[in-house]
Design goal:
Layout: H1 2-9, H2 19-45, H3 51-58, H4 64-91, H5 102-113, E1 118-122, H6 124-134, E2 141-145, H7 152-161, H8 167-176, H9 180-187, H10 208-220, H11 223-233, E3 239-242, E4 249-254, E5 262-265, H12 269-272, E6 277-283, H13 291-299, E7 302-305, H14 310-318, H15 321-329, E8 333-337, H16 352-363, E9 370-374, E10 401-405, H17 418-435
Helix pairs in contact: 6-8, 6-17, 8-9, 10-11, 13-15
């Protein structure tokens, strides 16, 4: 009983947008009751209602104060029961069985709608991890994704059909989907031969999600419209946009102590070279940014770069000059989320300072003045680890401020934990917002 009362009280929580309409309903009921009372009085005066019936209807045998109080209490009780049952009958169909109550679902939805405008820049598993945690705090998420992917199913579709690589976009859709488990299982499903042997089937190796986005591109006429419609069909929280619509190739200048620098073309080929990376760049260069991506950055409250592969997921977006210019012009808080582990072929032996130096080398100083670093480190890592923990061994240069938090997934210590990462990031953002005059803080995890 107490649980039902507590649930009923939540309808009065601020932010639901319910109280104003409840008040209007009660005012309407009051006017309706007043009209009925006038009608009954007129019928009694005209003789259509007998005196005994009138006394029974108006409870004249009770004191005046008792009649007034009783009428108000009975009316409010009946109205409350009717509203409660009506909402459950109407909205219950939209709340999955076994989930939280209708009012809890509505309350959380309203809070997410009013959440901070967050722009997340990157690609690959790192961006998916961040989005998977962020969607519990706000619906105002824009994921800006690299279009330089050229490997696997995405690379084949890109070469054969001329579409932008859908792989990273597919992963972001699954991360932001409401029913994440089912959508992930469906979108990540890969076609293969029944025998398990290599065959020449056109579908072999392709994921359903990549084919879905490619088909949607054909239906809508453009890749960007395909992303919008895919997000609408799958009811994702937020939007996913490319950094550019141009067909670009990611190139890298690799450092070789014996033969000097040499160039590798193709995002998938860069880590396979297993050489230190001097710099990465796009061909062609000076490509225009996708306008909605620029607009999202300029309107953002918080801009986040990473986590993810530094040279092949994060930096390709920041090689688009318009994107960097928009970030510098934005008044949002700007954070770089440093990886928790090194990546073979890209950031071998890197510390936090090396990640920041590479970022600065490509984008200029101070683009992301805050750096979020994992502080949950294993003192004696197992010998079987094929990676190293990224640690903060020396202070960063002036102009950078470090945020430390436990954000590692202890089951997979080479990755961030979605909930830990989002909670640390949004709690820090809330604290910064509270310290800024006139800025609202984002609510805690819903």
């Amino acid at each position: 009983m107490s649980r039902k009362v507590g649930s009923a009280q939540k309808w009065l929580y601020p932010g639901l947008g319910v109280k104003r309409w409840l008040a209007l309903l009660l005012i309407g009921i009051a006017f309706l009751s007043l009209g009925i009372a006038y009608l009954l009085h007129d019928l009694y005066i005209s003789g259509w209602i007998s005196r005994s019936t009138w006394q029974m209807l108006t409870l004249t045998f009770l004191p005046g104060w008792a009649r007034s109080l009783g009428g108000v209490l009975v009316g409010l009780s009946l109205a409350a029961i009717a509203i409660y049952r009506f909402n459950h009958a109407l909205l219950g169909a939209f709340v999955p069985p076994g989930s939280v109550s209708v009012v809890d679902t509505l309350y959380r939805h309203r809070l997410r709608q009013r959440g901070a405008k967050v722009v997340a820049i990157g690609g690959g598993n790192g961006l998916n991890t961040l989005l998977r945690g962020l969607k519990h705090y706000t619906d105002n998420i824009t994921a800006i994704v690299t279009v330089a992917d050229d490997g696997g199913s995405s690379g084949r579709l890109r070469r054969e059909l001329g579409v932008l690589p859908p792989g990273d976009f597919r992963n972001c859709i699954t991360a932001l989907a409401d029913d994440e488990a089912l959508i992930t299982q469906l979108f990540q499903y890969r076609f293969s031969s029944r025998s398990g042997e290599i065959d020449d089937s056109a579908l072999n190796g392709h994921s359903f999600g990549n084919l879905f986005i490619t088909a949607m591109t054909g239906v809508t006429g453009s890749f960007e419209k395909a992303l919008i419609e895919s997000g609408r069909v799958l009811a994702i929280r937020g939007q996913i946009v490319p950094s550019t619509l141009e067909d670009v190739t990611l190139c890298a200048e690799l450092v070789d102590d014996t033969s000097g620098n040499w160039v590798v073309s193709g995002e998938s080929a860069i880590p396979k070279a297993r050489r230190p990376i001097g710099r990465v760049y796009l061909e062609p260069d000076n490509v225009p940014a996708y306008p909605p991506a620029v607009r999202a950055i300029l309107e953002a409250d918080l801009i986040v770069a990473g986590p993810g592969s530094l040279f092949t997921s994060v930096l390709p977006n920041l090689l688009v000059e318009d994107i960097v210019n928009a970030i510098r012009a934005s008044t949002a808080l700007k954070v770089y989320i440093c990886n928790v582990a090194t990546q073979a072929g890209e950031t071998d032996e890197f510390e936090v300072a090396d990640h920041v130096a590479a970022l600065e080398r490509h984008t200029g100083p101070g683009l992301f003045p805050y750096v979020l670093v994992n502080d949950n480190l294993v003192n004696n890592p197992p010998s079987g680890w094929n990676f190293q923990q990224v640690v903060l061994r020396k202070p960063l240069e002036a102009g950078y401020r470090v945020i430390t938090a436990d954000v590692v997934d202890e089951q997979r210590p080479w990755r961030h934990h979605p909930e830990k990462l989002a909670r640390a990031l949004m709690n820090w953002y809330g604290k910064q917002s509270r310290e800024s005059v006139g800025t609202e803080s984002i609510p805690h995890e819903l």
